[in-house]
């Protein structure tokens, strides 16, 4: 693995590697999405290539994860072909002290939620900048919406006290389109006091497919930090 030099990249790389080290031979592995998980996927591939790891099969949570897994030689499967997932490794945009998460900065939270909740062990990999006292402090909640329902869903989340913004593409005119062909509304709340209920309330709005609040799901949160110029990984 090429060493990263940027401190944030270094933290992501170290924490991704630490999670990849927890994967055992013979496992079915949920492969998350994002820049941190990308390092875990890379390192799982390197362990497979070196023969240290054998008989791994991955379940990708996005087109990005699928492409990376193929690049690093990780065989893939689908949920139709398996009856469980041993371990899932995935990033997050915010993590609170109860290990509740906001995910979906890469618009992949719908498939991630399916895979991460199915896993016997779900490991979250983040750099220290993702830790918050209360969900919603910094990040908006990504809400995947079917295209014809964007306007009524924006109205409904405004009535709940949120400030909605349709996520727009970068280097692409128009809105971001998810792997499912839908759109994403980022909803900023001043404060999320009850993530358990907000997750359900958002998903009950007609036209919403899934939102990025993950509660009671993470088993282990690994945090990458740089201390005295050295990358370290600690458990939450
Ligand atoms: O949709 C994307 C995912 O939920 C990511 O896992 C999340 O946004 C964290 O990504 P990153 O590791 O790039 O910060």
Automatic annotation (TrEMBL):
<dbReference type="InterPro" id="IPR020672">
    <property type="entry name" value="Ribose5P_isomerase_typA_subgr"/>
</dbReference>
<comment type="similarity">
    <text>Belongs to the ribose 5-phosphate isomerase family.</text>
</comment>
<keyword id="KW-0413">Isomerase</keyword>
<dbReference type="GO" id="GO:0006014">
    <property type="term" value="P:D-ribose metabolic process"/>
</dbReference>
<dbReference type="InterPro" id="IPR004788">
    <property type="entry name" value="Ribose5P_isomerase_type_A"/>
</dbReference>
<feature type="active site" description="Proton acceptor">
    <location>
        <position position="112"/>
    </location>
</feature>
<comment type="subunit">
    <text>Homodimer.</text>
</comment>
<dbReference type="GO" id="GO:0004751">
    <property type="term" value="F:ribose-5-phosphate isomerase activity"/>
</dbReference>
<feature type="binding site">
    <location>
        <position position="130"/>
    </location>
    <ligand>
        <name>substrate</name>
    </ligand>
</feature>
<dbReference type="InterPro" id="IPR037171">
    <property type="entry name" value="NagB/RpiA_transferase-like"/>
</dbReference>
<feature type="binding site">
    <location>
        <begin position="33"/>
        <end position="36"/>
    </location>
    <ligand>
        <name>substrate</name>
    </ligand>
</feature>
<protein>
    <recommendedName>
        <fullName>Ribose-5-phosphate isomerase A</fullName>
        <ecNumber>5.3.1.6</ecNumber>
    </recommendedName>
</protein>
<dbReference type="GO" id="GO:0005829">
    <property type="term" value="C:cytosol"/>
</dbReference>
<comment type="function">
    <text>Catalyzes the reversible conversion of ribose-5-phosphate to ribulose 5-phosphate.</text>
</comment>
<comment type="pathway">
    <text>Carbohydrate degradation; pentose phosphate pathway; D-ribose 5-phosphate from D-ribulose 5-phosphate (non-oxidative stage): step 1/1.</text>
</comment>
<dbReference type="Pfam" id="PF06026">
    <property type="entry name" value="Rib_5-P_isom_A"/>
</dbReference>
<feature type="binding site">
    <location>
        <begin position="103"/>
        <end position="106"/>
    </location>
    <ligand>
        <name>substrate</name>
    </ligand>
</feature>
<feature type="binding site">
    <location>
        <begin position="90"/>
        <end position="93"/>
    </location>
    <ligand>
        <name>substrate</name>
    </ligand>
</feature>
<dbReference type="GO" id="GO:0009052">
    <property type="term" value="P:pentose-phosphate shunt, non-oxidative branch"/>
</dbReference>
């Amino acid at each position: 693995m090429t060493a990263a030099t940027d401190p944030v990249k270094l933290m992501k790389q170290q924490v991704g590697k630490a999670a990849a080290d927890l994967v055992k031979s013979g496992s079915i592995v949920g492969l998350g999405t994002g820049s941190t998980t990308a390092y875990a996927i890379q390192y799982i591939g390197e362990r497979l290539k070196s023969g240290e790891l054998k008989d791994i099969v991955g379940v990708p949570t996005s087109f990005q994860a699928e492409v990376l897994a193929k690049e690093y030689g990780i065989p893939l499967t689908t949920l139709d072909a398996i009856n469980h997932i041993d371990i899932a490794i995935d990033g997050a945009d915010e993590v609170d002290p109860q290990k509740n998460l906001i995910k979906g900065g890469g618009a992949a939270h719908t498939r991630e939620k399916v895979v991460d909740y199915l896993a016997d062990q779900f490991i979250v990999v983040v750099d220290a900048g993702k830790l918050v006292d209360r969900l919603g402090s910094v990040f908006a909640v990504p809400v995947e919406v079917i295209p014809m329902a964007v306007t009524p869903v924006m109205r409904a989340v405004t009535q709940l006290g949120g400030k909605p913004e349709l996520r727009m593409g970068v280097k692409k005119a128009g809105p971001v389109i998810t792997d499912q062909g839908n759109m994403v509304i980022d909803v900023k709340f001043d404060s999320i006091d009850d993530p358990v209920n907000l997750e359900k309330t958002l998903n009950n709005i007609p036209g919403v497919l899934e939102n990025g609040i993950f509660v009671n799901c993470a088993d282990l949160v690994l945090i990458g930090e740089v201390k005295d110029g050295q990358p370290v990984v600690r458990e939450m």
